[in-house]
Amino acid sequence: MSREHGSRTERFGADAAAAVVIGAVALAARLVYLAQARSHPLFDKIIMDARSYWDWSDRLARGDWMGDQVFYQAPLYPYFLGVLKSVLGADVGMVRLVQAVLGSAACVFMFLAARAWMTAAGLEPARARRVGVIAGLVLAVYPPAIFLDSLIQKANLGVVWMTLLLWLLARVWMQPGTWRAVGLGVVMGLLMLTREETLLLAPVVGAVAAVGGWRWHR
């Protein structure tokens, strides 16, 4: 039992170290990009879809949280901006910094998701971790991901929810449980409130979770 406990502690330590490294690389890449992009004349301009999100969040930050019309776009990202403005002020630079941190967290979730799915596929822990590290680092330095994390767009939150969903789905697949299933459902709901087209994923996620539960209890 002591040897098993020591092995689990060692694996947890290795996973934690990998997660810290991936998060640090991702955040450094995004901060470097933000520092370099500030010299572009359009960097601080809020136009097109970004302008609609920004104006909507302005109304929310002023207290109009309920509104009086039907949502014409998925509402979670404007509400996210509204909360940030209420707490930090209407500073687009601060919003981009928060999104850089969230984008870095998504890279860690990608690591955890890939490692979990590889473990479910039967790879030994060290090899599963290696695959997860590669997946996390690829997302950490992937240029489109770095670029999208700097925009006033819902893509940032969408990637966060998607990578977290993949990780939670793997955990439900390997060992179903009530709270894991609840967490999976909550994140699926957050994803749909961020990107409405992901409603199409709900039956797939539900089917995978159901099959995982059936396998576990069989």
The rounded Rg comes to 19 Å
Oligomeric state of the chains in view: single chain
User: Please, how many helices?
Assistant: 9
Q: Which residue ranges are poorly predicted, with pLDDT under 50 across at least 5 consecutive positions? A: none
Distance between the termini: 27 Å
**Secondary-structure element sequence?**
HHHHHHHHH
Strand content: under 5%
Helix percentage range: over 70%
Number of strands: 0
Query: Which structural class is indicated by helix and strand composition?
Result: mainly alpha
Overall morphology: globular
Largest sheet composition:
none
Write the layout of secondary structure elements.
Elements lengths: L1 H36 L11 H13 L14 H13 L3 H29 L4 H17 L1 H7 L5 H20 L3 H17 L7 H16 L1
Helix pairs in contact: 1-4, 1-5, 2-3, 4-5, 4-7, 7-8, 7-9
